[in-house]
Design goal:
The chain is α+β, with helices and mostly antiparallel strands. The protein is 50% helix and 14% strand. It folds into three domains: 3-197; 222-501, no CATH class; 598-670, no CATH class. The protein has helices at 3-9, 15-34, 40-59, 68-85, 92-106, 113-133, 137-162, 170-197, 359-364, 377-387, 392-404, 421-429, 434-447, 510-531, 535-548, 552-592, 598-612, 623-628, 633-650, 658-670, and strands spanning 12-14, 167-169, 222-224, 237-242, 252-258, 260-261, 265-267, 284-293, 303-304, 307-311, 315-319, 322-325, 333-342, 409-410, 431-432, 452-459, 462-464, 469-473, 477-485, 489-493. The strands form six sheets. The protein has a six-stranded antiparallel beta sheet. A five-stranded antiparallel beta sheet has the order 9-5-16-19-20. A three-stranded antiparallel beta sheet has the order 3-7-6, covered by helices on one side. Helix 4 packs antiparallel against helix 5 (92-106) and helix 15 (535-548) runs antiparallel to helix 16.
Length: 676
């Protein structure tokens, strides 16, 4: 039976029942808005308590409700526990989870006017928490539903406070609900006008409360062979790029340049460089992009290969066409980028164009020829065989062809794991993901005297025709090779088989694909025109209005408005800064009750005991890089097992379960010669 048909069967309704129904609807709306961001146990507990509350309301027995003193005691316990669960990196989620439990237990008691008002207030706080966690289009939908429901609830609750036993006819009930909905409808135009003209501030004074992007999978300053296979199985969006549609073979999104190889992993020395090198001149087609980057916890920004300009505050480029922000990216970031697409297809051979060695250029590229001393002789011999009696360009093509002609297959499973994984890949398993293909080519190029690096970024993307932008997901994570060819500069080569990029969404039905594309486009425009609406856009809008309406009086008025807006912006900025200081003091007081998270205690014990043995981790070292430098073979093996297991949980933004903590502690105890 549909809801309209159900309403038609109702001739009258008790006002208390109507208030209960609307209150449950408000609470469920608030719950759904945050359900995706809280742990399953809290969601399950909320649903369970609400079911019990519905049963108690159905019994209509005053003796069946939980006594108020028990509700108050439970509320105090929940608040105390939530305060101890809060820490500097995550204030919102523990608060939201506590509010969720407080909201549910409010329904277990016999409710009065004051209790219903408390339910509505807690629901409003939950909705505010949802805005701090993710203010996307879905939040707007929840907000509108909440807005309409709360308007009806306040009116019905007023009747209830005066006559709790009042019975109203169906026609009267429908009229009350419809008329209360007029209030939100009338407020929407006024709210829109206020949104457009109210002075904006660029100071994100609530940003320290937002959930950190630390845990989102993504590229770091180093990549271990097989290390991004987990990222390539993640379908979450990493960024959207508003731009024209290009051929798929041109969609390489550059992020990090890895120039140092130790036999098992690549790392970037440019990340720590302070000097900015002079970029080489590029010839080719220029492509502009507006990129909306999701928070992922590192400093690198991505753009179409090769970016020559990225417009963000506090950005630097140490060379290699890579760009870094001053601080790790923990909030959504919008920026403009201009890239130059190489003039000819990557890897094209022109027999009539002879190699032209440039000794000055190659002297600068000496650091890009270094190899670890323990590279297996078999790899060097294979490189020499493939490149014998060939120029640099032809030698590079020979290695590329060797890796892509069918001898090797692409796979994300059962990746080579040994002390020499590259040798195992080339001569035994002959199967691996993009890190193995790119590393094999780069190492063989360096062994042949050709400067080469590995580039980390993303390959491909899904184009949304409704919005005119690319969606790039974590599963598009990719690495490729850049080789220095005399007379041509750095050229891109991708040895990974083309079959690796046959990611398709054709398995989804046409209707589902259309709905998904349409909703993502709406969400995209919501972010562009609402979330990113700022003071600069306000001024731009006023300038366009002044241009279109060529009336002297209007021009004068617009100038006055702009002056007033600038003054109000300064005032708003000062108020925002003052409020930020107040909120920061509150946050620090909360942090005072902080308990150090268990993952930090485990890592601290691990590093502290290794420090006693003379192995001290540098600030710039990754955990696996630090472990690889341990000279004791047994200790290095056991410590490496701990590091891999720890990072597997930590970098996926998972909470450490009791079983995982127990396993990690057992691994610490088993480490030789450590005794913890």
């Amino acid at each position: 039976m549909y809801l309209p048909d159900f309403i038609k069967t109702i001739h009258s309704i008790r006002i208390g029942t109507a208030v209960k129904l609307v209150s449950y609807a408000i609470a469920l709306t608030a719950f759904i808005s945050v359900a995706a961001y809280v742990e399953y146990v809290y969601s399950a507990l909320f649903v369970l308590v609400i079911i019990i509350a519905v049963y108690l309301d159905y019994k209509k027995s005053a003796e069946g409700y939980v006594p108020r003193w028990i509700i108050n005691a439970l509320s105090v316990i929940v608040i105390i526990l939530s305060v101890f669960r809060m820490y500097g990196e995550d204030l919102v989620e523990p608060a939201v989870e506590a509010l969720l439990i407080l909201l549910s237990i409010k329904f277990l008691e016999k409710r009065t006017f004051r209790d219903y008002m408390q339910v509505y207030l807690i629901s409003l706080f939950l909705l505010a928490g949802a805005a701090l966690l993710s203010i996307d289009l879905s939040f707007f939908l929840y907000f509108m539903i909440f807005f309409f429901l709360i308007s009806s609830a306040i009116v019905l609750l007023t009747y209830y406070s005066q006559a709790p036993d009042l019975i109203i006819q169906r026609a009267v009930f429908v009229k009350i609900v419809l008329k209360t909905m007029v209030i939100p409808l009338l407020s929407i135009p006024m709210a829109s006008i206020i949104f457009l003209v109210l002075p904006r501030t660029d100071r994100p004074f609530f940003s320290f409360l937002n959930r950190s992007g630390r845990g989102r999978s993504g590229f770091a300053d180093s990549v271990t062979l097989g290390g991004i296979s987990s990222i390539q199985q993640d379908s979450s969006v990493v960024f959207r790029a508003s731009m024209e549609k290009l051929d798929d073979e041109l969609l390489y999104w550059r992020g990090i340049l890895f120039d140092t190889f130790d036999g098992t992993s690549w790392k970037s020395s440019l990340a720590e460089a302070t000097a900015t090198t002079r970029p080489e001149r590029l010839r080719g087609r220029r492509v502009s992009q507006t990129i909306y980057l999701e928070p992922y916890g590192n400093k690198y920004v991505f753009a179409l290969d090769k970016p020559i300009s990225i417009l963000i505050k506090n950005i630097r480029s140490p060379g290699g066409f890579i760009y870094l922000t001053k601080e790790p990216i923990k909030n959504k970031l919008r920026y403009e980028a201009i890239s130059v697409i190489e003039g000819k297809p990557q890897g094209a051979v022109q027999p009539n164009m002879p190699d032209r060695p440039d000794k000055a250029d190659m002297a600068e590229k000496e650091s890009y020829l270094k190899l670890p001393p323990d590279i297996p002789d078999g790899i060097t011999a294979l490189a020499q065989t493939l490149t014998k009696d060939k120029g640099r360009r032809a030698a590079t093509e020979a290695i590329l062809t060797y890796l892509r002609d069918g001898r090797y297959s692409y796979s994300l499973e059962r990746l080579p794991e040994s002390q020499s994984p590259l040798s195992e890949f080339l001569f035994k398993t002959k199967s691996g993901n993009c890190e193995y293909f790119a590393s094999a080519m780069a190492v063989m190029l360096r062994a042949s005297g050709i400067a080469a690096n590995v580039i980390g970024g993303y390959k491909g993307g899904q184009y949304n025709n409704l919005g005119g932008y690319y969606i790039v997901m974590q599963k598009n994570a990719h690495v490729w090779v850049e080789a220095y060819i005399d007379g041509e500069g750095w050229r891109r080569y991708d040895p990974t088989p083309a079959a690796a990029f046959s990611i398709s969404i054709e398995s989804k039905g046409a209707l589902l694909r259309t709905l998904q594309t349409s909703f993502d486009a709406l969400n995209y425009y919501w972010g562009v025109f609402v979330i990113n609406y700022n003071f600069d856009r306000q001024l731009s809008m006023l300038k366009k209005l002044r241009t279109n309406i060529n009336v002297p009086v209007m021009k004068s008025s617009l100038l006055k408005v702009r002056t007033a807006l600038k003054r109000m912006k300064t005032t708003a900025s000062l108020m925002a800064a003052a409020l930020a200081v107040i909120l920061l003091i509150i946050a620090l007081r909360l942090i005072f009750f902080n308990k150090t998270p268990v993952e930090k205690r485990l890592l601290g014990s691990f590093l502290r005991e290794l420090r006693k043995l003379g192995f001290v981790k540098k600030q710039s070292e990754g955990l696996e890089e630090f472990v690889s430098a341990i000279t004791d073979d047994g200790l290095r093996r056991d410590a490496g097992m701990f590091a891999v297991e720890f990072e597997k949980i930590y970098y996926r933004d998972e909470r450490f379960t009791k079983e995982q903590i127990k396993r990690l502690r057992a691994m610490l105890k088993a480490m030789r010669p450590l005794k913890i």
